[in-house]
Amino acid sequence: MRNRLLLIVALFISVTLKGQVWPYQNPSLSFEERAKDLISRLTIEEKAALMCDQSDAIPRLGIRKFNWWSEALHGYANNDSVTVFPEPIGMAASFNDALLYDIYNAVSDEGRAKYHQHLRRGNENKRFLSLSVWTPNVNIFRDPRWGRGQETYGEDPYLTSRMGVQVVKGLQGPEDAKYRKLLACAKHYAVHSGPEWSRHELNLNNVNPRLFNETYLPAFKALVQEANVRQVMCAYQRLDDEPCCGSTRLLQRILRDEWGFKHIVVSDCGAITDFYTTHKVSSTPVHAASQGVLSGTDVECVWENYPYKTLPEAVERGLMKEEEINKSLMRVLIGRFEVGDFDDDALVPWAQIPASVLNCDKHKQLAYQMAQQSMTLLQNNNNILPLSKSMKKIAVIGPNAADEEMLWGNYNGTPIHTISILNGIKSKISENKIFYDKGCDLVEDKVTESYFSQLSFDGKRGFTATYWNNPAREGNAVISQQIITPIKKTTAGQHEFASGVKLEGFSALFQAEFTPKVSEELVFKGGATGYFELLVNGQQLQMYNNWRTLPGRIPYQFEAGKKYHIELRYAQLNNWQANIEFDFGKEVDVDYTELVRKLKGIETVVFVGGLSGKLEGEEMPVSYPGFKGGDRTDIELPAVQRNCLKALRAAGKKVIYVNCSGAAIALQPETQSCDAILQAWYPGEMGGLAVADVLFGDYNPGGKLPVCFYKNSDKLGDFEDYSMNDRTYRYTTDYLFPFGFGLSYTSFQIGKAGISQSSIKANEKVTLTIPVKNTGKRAGTEIVQVYVRKVNDVDGPLKTLRGFQRVELAPGESQSVSIELTPSSFEFYDWSLRQMAVTPGQYEVYYGNSSASEALQMTMVTIQ
C-alpha cells in the first residue's frame, strides 16, 4: 500500500512539473519580461554559454541549441537548392532599392523555409542554418583592391544607406509584426574595408573626425535608426588603439547613447581572441572576454575555444559583475524570443513558409530581373551592340564564358540550375553559329596538359578514393572507388561523394602513384572546401581548412624513373558544403597564334573575362600573381587576358568584352582593344541569360557604376591608409569611368530643373522637379542623380550623392522626376561643433545622369 501511494505521488509530481509554464515560456508576456525571468533561472556558466555564437542546449530549461551565424549576402548562403541573386555590388548598380526589398523578402522566405525544413527532418540547428543572418555588409568600398568590396553597395554613403535599409527590412519582416522573420546584421562596424591580410593587426589612428562621420558611419546609423536592425557586427581591426569589439566609444557612446541602438552586438569571428593574440591589448582569454562584454559585445563568434566561456572566472576575479553579463544576455535572449525560438511553430507565421519557395520560379524571376538591371554598359563604339541574331558566326572566348560558379560570387548558396554566359548566348542564336574556346586562364599565362591518365594505384588507373563516415578517417571505410578523370566532387545539391558516404562529417583519402618518363617540373592544381592536404612521398606540400574552394597551383620537380606516391587527405568540417577539385600535369605557354587560327572567318568575338570569387574574397589562403590573401596588389586586368584581347584586336576582330568582377578594373587599355565593354559583375544564377539579353538587344542596359573605375593603379596609395585622398568620386576626378556612369541603347535629355524653394531654413526640405525625355528610338531606363556640395567647403567632398530615381521611358516620352532633399541632404561635418550639422550658407545642387561634371547641371540653395 505504501509503495502504491509513493508511486501515485511521484506520478502527480511528474505531471505537475511537465505541465509547468514558467513566465519565460508564456508567449503572452513581452519578450523583455520573458528574457528577465529566464535569466533569473540560469547559472552563470549557462549564461556565458548562451553568449557564444554556437549556443548549446540547456535541457533542464527546455532551451534548444541555437546558432547565431548564418549568411544571406545575396541568397541564403552555404545551402543548396536556394536562389542565388547577383552579388551586392552588382545589385547596387541597379540603383533600385525597391527591388532590393523584394529580393531580401524572398531571401528571408527561403531562410525560414530551409531552417524549419532542416529541423523537421530531426536535425539540430547548426551554423549557416539559423534565423540570425550576418547581412548586409555596409562598409564603404574605399579602395578597389579590397577583395570583399563585392559584398558592399559601393563607395557612396548615401547609396549604401538606401540599399542597406531595404535589405534589413526585407530580411526582418514588418516592424509591426510580433516576430521577426530573421535577425539581420549591419557589418563590419566601423571603418573597415581591408586589407584582408592585416585586418587582425591593423590599427587605424589617422581617420579624421570628418571622414569618420561623413563617410564611414552614415550607413550604420541609417540601418540602426531607419531599419531598426537587430544586430551590429564589430570589426576585427583597432580604431585609435582600441579593437572595434572592445571600444566603448563605438559600442556605447555612439551606437547606444547617440543612435539609440537597443539590440545585439556580435563579434566578427575570432575578434575577441585577437585581443590577446594579435592586438595584444589583453593578456589572457579571461581578460579579453571581460573587455568584450564590458565594452558592449554581446555575442562572441570564434572557431573554437570561446573566451566568453571564461566569463564566470572573470566574475570570480572581480574583473566584472554578473549583472553586466545579465545586461548583455538580456539583449541576446530578446533576439531569440523575437524570432520565436522559444515558442511553438504554430504561433510563428514565418514558420509556416513552405519549402516550395526554395529557388521557386518567382524567386528566379527576381534574380533574373535584378541581373538585367545590374548590367552596366561602359563602352559601345559605333553602336556595335546590340548584336544581330542573324549573324553567320560568332566566337565566345574567355575564362569566364562557361564558368557557372563564377556567376555566384562569394558568400553564396547553390541554386538548382545556373545559366552560364555561354549558355545564355546559345539561347539567342543557334549553337552551330557559335565557336567556343576558353582562350586563356583568368591569371596564369599557361595552360595545363593533364597527366591524370598516367596515374595509377594497385595496378588500377587513376586515383583510389577511400571514404569514411567520420572526419578523422578512423575505423572501417564505407567504400573505395577508382577515379580516372580529374577530381571534381561536391555535396551541393545533396550529391554524395560516393554511394553510402554521408553529406556531412565524412573524410576521404585519395591515393595514386606516378613514375615519370622524363625529368621535368609539373604542377598540382586543386583545392577544397573543408580540410585539404596534399602530400608527395610523405612530404606535405599544402594544407588548409577553408570555407570555400580555392584552387591553387603547386609546382613540383619530378625525376625520371622515380616512383612518387601522391596523397590527398580530405575532411568535411564546420557545416560547409563539401567540395574538392584536383588535376595534375604540365604547363605550356598560351599560344594565341593557334587561337587566332581557330577564329579564321569569324569577325565578331565576345570575350568573357575579368576576375572570380576564387581570386578575390575574404582572407584567402591561396594567392596568385597580382593578388594577396583575397585582395589585389594592383587593379589592372591580369596580363594573360589583356594579351589575349590584344591578339584578337591585332587579328582584326571586332571584340565585345564582358567583364565579370566584384570590383573596379583599370580598363584603359581595353578601351583601345575592345569595341564594347559590358560590366556584368557576378550576376547570379540567371546572369548568363541577362548578359545575353543585353548583347543581343532583348534588354536595354540601364545600370550605373556604384564605384569609380580608375585609369590604373598609380594613384591608389597605401592600401592601409584610410584617408580618402584620390579615392572615390567624392575626392577625385581622375577616373576612367565615373561613379553613376552607364550607357544605354537609347538617348536621354535632362532638362532644367525646377526647385520648390531656393532659400530655406535648416529644418526645411527642397523638392527638385527634373524633366527627362527619351530622345532615342527604343524604350529605356535612366537613373537621375542629385548631388550636393557646400560652397567654400575647403576640405569637404567635391560632391555627395543625396538622391536618385529610376525613370522608364518609351521612345519620345517625357516625364518630370521629383526628388526630395530633406534637411539631412545638407548635413556635413562641422569642425566648430565637432559633429554633423546643417549650417547656414550656400549649397550647390547638381543633377544629371552620372557624377561627372560634364553630365551635371547645377542650381543653388541657400540655408538661412
Automatic annotation (TrEMBL):
SMART domains in the cross-refs: Fn3_like, PA14
Single Gene Ontology MF annotation: alpha-L-arabinofuranosidase activity
Keywords assigned: Hydrolase, Signal
InterPro entries assigned: BXL, Fn3-like, GH, Glyco_hydro_3_C, Glyco_hydro_3_C_sf, Glyco_hydro_3_N, Glyco_hydro_3_N_sf, Ig-like_fold
Limits of the PA14 domain: 458-600
SUPFAM superfamilies linked: (Trans)glycosidases (SSF51445), Anthrax protective antigen (SSF56988), Beta-D-glucan exohydrolase, C-terminal domain (SSF52279)
Keyword Metal-binding: no
Domain of life: Bacteria
GO biological process: arabinan catabolic process; xylan catabolic process
Pfam families: Fn3-like (PF14310), Glyco_hydro_3 (PF00933), Glyco_hydro_3_C (PF01915), PA14 (PF07691)
Family statement: Belongs to the glycosyl hydrolase 3 family.
Protein name per Swiss-Prot or TrEMBL: Beta-glucosidase
Species lineage: Bacteria, Pseudomonadati, Bacteroidota, Bacteroidia, Marinilabiliales
